[in-house]
Write a structure and sequence with these properties.
binds adenosine-5'-diphosphate, Helix Hairpins, alpha+beta, Heat Shock Protein 90, Beta-Lactamase, five-stranded mixed β-sheet, six-stranded antiparallel β-sheet
């Protein structure tokens, strides 16, 4: 048992050391209920003291008034008894009310009127009475037991000459006020309990949030490790791929005349697959470099027309091969702020997509200045994209899979790379498309 306790404590200490954030939760958990408890404890103590004083004052006041009336009635005990009974009836706090005179021997006192009729005529040797007889201002003390507390007040009754004639002894019950105090105490403790429950709830909620934050940071770490792995793996794949590609080209060149039609077909398929693999590896590497901000941007004042022409010319053979008409009619355009190489990369990506997803028809490139931006649009008459798919188009690995695209090789990385590059040049890419009609991809680049 002891070992288990020590083990639990050391586990808790280690956890706090590793996660210092929980200290805040622990402080909340201890500090708030403790503060509320102390405040309640202090307020109730003060409240009780005040009530004691009030009742004390009330008892003394009552006794002074009784003194005034009783002194004239000392000669007629019956009338005195009626007065006592009347006062007790009207004041429920008065639990004992005796009027006593000195006995014949001048040693003790004899009860001549009392709320307890059976005690009339009995002798009393109570110390309180003897003390009070010898003190002008009387005696007041707090007494009673666990169930009921009293203010016991005893004072002499003097005649008009100041001569001591009798004693009045009152017991004022504190029970009604104690009941009130107790119910207030219970209510306050209930409130403290409620507060503790609320604080516990808040802290547990905070602990949950803390757990989420921990998971998130771990997830980020795993994500970073994954990115590192992908980057490293793609990098390592590149060299053997380049070697395979080189040797294959070398082999085809050398054996061009020797290979039969079947073998040629196989070799061409191998070459196609290697090209696909190479572009996938290149895309993945590009994504990881962009995410790590490892691609330096050389943003300079740039003439857009030569770059658009170069990109179109580079893609023309692919368009021709599919029988697509690719046109760009240059008009005069303002200069832009861009990295020329990256601008070309974006345009080639947009044009190659247009060629890929246009079975027949044409691809037009046009550009115009609008506001502080140059808008370069690649418009095709291809398969188009539904508005639903447009929403996820620029996400990583987002590929639209349907009947029309099922045979087209795609990684879903090209548009993510293009739009990230555009953003790094303070630009953007937008899309307008109608399914079955065609798509307009527009690159927005700041003017110089
Ligand atoms: P990839 O470069 O591998 O084709 P992208 O990120 O460039 O991937 O494109 C993502 C998806 O967007 C593609 O799989 C394709 O379905 C769709 N897409 C891109 N360009 C066009 C276009 N011009 N016309 C129709 N669909 C397109």
């Amino acid at each position: 048992m002891k070992e288990l306790l020590i083990k639990s404590i050391s586990v808790a200490i280690r956890f706090i050391r590793e996660n210092p954030e929980v200290i805040f939760s622990l402080i909340l958990l201890v500090f708030i209920p403790a503060a509320i408890f102390l405040n309640t404890y202090y307020t109730i103590g003060k409240f009780q003291k005040n009530i004691n004083t009030i009742i004390h004052t009330k008892a003394i006041l009552a006794e002074n008034i009784i003194n005034l009336t009783a002194k004239d009635l000392l000669a007629s005990p019956d009338r005195l008894q009626t007065l006592v009974e009347k006062i007790v009836l009207e004041n429920e706090e008065i639990k004992k009310f005796d009027i006593l005179i000195r006995d014949e021997n001048n040693e003790g006192f004899r009860v001549i009127a009392s709320n307890d009729a059976s005690s009339i005529g009995t002798d009393s040797l109570e110390l309180q009475n003897i003390l009070a007889w010898n003190q002008k201002e009387g005696i007041a003390n707090l007494g009673g037991n666990d169930t009921e507390r009293f203010w016991n007040i005893t004072k002499t009754i003097n005649d008009d000459t100041g001569e001591k004639r009798a004693l009045v002894s009152l017991a004022f019950s504190l029970a009604p006020s104690d009941r009130l105090v107790n119910s207030t105490i219970n209510l306050s403790y209930l409130m403290v309990l409620l507060t503790i429950i609320i604080v516990l709830f808040l802290v547990s909620n905070q602990a949950r949030l803390f757990g989420y934050a921990l998971t998130l940071s771990k997830l980020k770490e795993v994500d970073r490790m994954k990115d590192n792995f992908i980057s490293m793996a793609s990098h390592e794949l590149r060299s053997p791929l380049t070697a395979i590609k080189g040797y294959l080209e070398f082999f085809m060149e050398k054996n061009e005349k020797k290979v039969d039609a079947d073998s040629r077909h196989y070799l061409e398929n191998i070459s196609l697959s290697i090209n696909r693999l190479e572009s996938l590896v290149n895309d993945i590497l590009e994504v990881s470099r962009l995410e790590d901000n490892q691609i330096p941007m050389n943003i300079i004042m740039t003439e857009p027309i030569p770059i658009i022409i170069e990109s179109a010319q580079e893609m023309k053979p692919a368009a021709d091969q599919k029988g697509l008409v690719l046109t760009f009619l240059p008009t005069s355009l303002p200069k832009i702020e861009a990295d020329p190489e990256r601008l070309k990369q974006i345009l080639i990506n947009l044009i190659s997509n247009a060629i890929k997803y246009t079975p027949a028809g044409k691809i037009d490139i046009f550009a115009k200045a609008k506001g502080r931006k140059l808008l370069i649009t690649v418009a095709d008459t291809g398969i188009g994209i539904s508005s639903e798919d447009q929403a996820t188009l620029f996400k990583k690995f987002s590929r639209i899979q349907n009947e029309k695209t099922k045979d087209i090789v795609s990684t879903g990385l090209g548009l993510w790379i293009a739009s990230d590059l555009a953003k790094k040049m303070n630009g953007d890419i937008t899309i307008e498309s109608i399914e079955g009609v065609g798509s307009h991809f527009t690159l927005h680049i700041p003017l110089a």
